[in-house]
Amino acid sequence: MRFLFLGDVVGRSGRKVVLDTLPRLREAWRLDFVVINGENSAGGFGITEQITQDLLDAGADCVTLGNHAFDQREALVFIARQPRLVRPLNFPKGTPGAGAALISARNGAQVLVINAMGRVFMTELDCPFRAIDAELMACPLKQGADAIFIDFHAEATSEKQALAVFLDSRVSAIAGTHTHSPTADERILPGGTAYISDAGMCGDYQSVLGMDAEEPVQRFLSRIPKERFKPAEGAATLCGLAVEIDDATGLAVRTKALRMGGVLSQSTPEWWSEG
Ligand SMILES: [Fe+2]
Ligand SMILES: [Fe+2]
C-alpha cells in the first residue's frame, strides 16, 4: 500500500498547494490512502465544512485535527456528520466527533486512522499513550485493520519519540504534527513502524509557523497583542511523509519525507515512480 500524510495545512496558501498538487500526486504515485492534517486550514485557525470537503475532493481519504480542532465553531456540529474528519482521541468525554476512524483505501484495505494530542507544553488531556493503546486493543493491526496510521499532535519531540517506541510494531506509521517545522529524522523503527517527529506544515515558510511574521515578532517584543494573527500568503511548501506499507504485515518497508514547492522544496522520493 502506498500511503501519504501531509502536515498541518495553514490558511489559503497551504490549501492552494494541496489542491494544486495532490490530485496529480495521487495519480502519478498511485497512492492508496492519503491523510491530511487540517487544523489550521481555515485562516490558520480550525477548519470549516467546505474546506474539509475541498481537501477530501482533492484526494484526501481522511482529515485529522489538533489543538485548533474547534476554533471554527461550526466544526462542533458538522464533525458529527463527517466520519472522515477525526479530532484528537484524548479530548474529554463528550467532545463532539471521534478520535479514530476505520476507512477503506483505494486498494480495498481497511485503514485505521488515529489522531491524538501530546500533553507536554500543551493543554492537559487524557493520557495519549493509554488512549491509543485502548484503541489498538480494540482494533489490532492485521486483525481489525490492514494498516494503522497515527497523527500525534504534540509539541515535545521527547513525547513523540516515546510514543513511537511504545507503539513500534503495532502500527504502520506515526507522524508528528503541530510544530509546523519538518524534522529530518524519518525512519523505520526496529519493529517496522515508520516514524517522523514532525511532518512539517503545508504553508508559507517565510513566516512564523505559517503566520505573517509581523505580529508574532511584535508580540515577543512587547507582550501586547496588536492585531490578529494572519496566515502568510507566499508560496507554500507541501510537507509530509510517504510510506510504503507491506500488505502482508501492515508494517512499513520504505519511508521518505516529502517537501515540494515553496522555499523548503527538495527532490521528491524517486522510489514512488518505480514499478
Ligand atoms: Fe498546526
Ligand atoms: Fe497544533
Blueprint of the fold:
Layout: E1 2-6, H1 11-28, E2 33-37, H2 49-58, E3 62-64, H3 75-78, E4 85-86, E5 100-104, E6 110-117, H4 128-138, E7 147-153, H5 157-167, E8 173-177, E9 187-188, E10 194-196, H6 214-222, E11 238-245, E12 252-260
Parallel strand pairs: 1-2, 2-3, 3-4, 6-7, 7-8, 8-10
Antiparallel strand pairs: 1-11, 5-6, 9-10, 11-12
The structure holds fe (ii) ion (2 copies).
Describe this structure in words.
This protein has about 280 residues and is an alpha/beta fold. Strands 4-3-2-1-11-12 form a six-stranded mixed sheet. Strands 5-6-7-8-10-9 form a six-stranded mixed sheet, with helices on one face. The chain is built from six helices and twelve strands. Helix content is about 25%, strand content about 25%. Helix 1 (about 10-30) packs parallel to helix 2 (about 50-60). Bound molecules: fe (ii) ion (2 copies).
Mean pLDDT: 96
Q: What small ligands are held by the chains? A: fe (ii) ion
Distance between the termini: 13 Å
Ranges with pLDDT <50 over ≥5 residues?
Answer: none
The biggest sheet amounts to: 6 strands, mixed
DSSP summary: helix tally: 6
Radius of gyration: 17 Å
Side by side, the strands of the main sheet go 4-3-2-1-11-12
Query: Roughly what percent helix?
Result: 10-25%
Give the overall shape: globular
Number of strands: 12
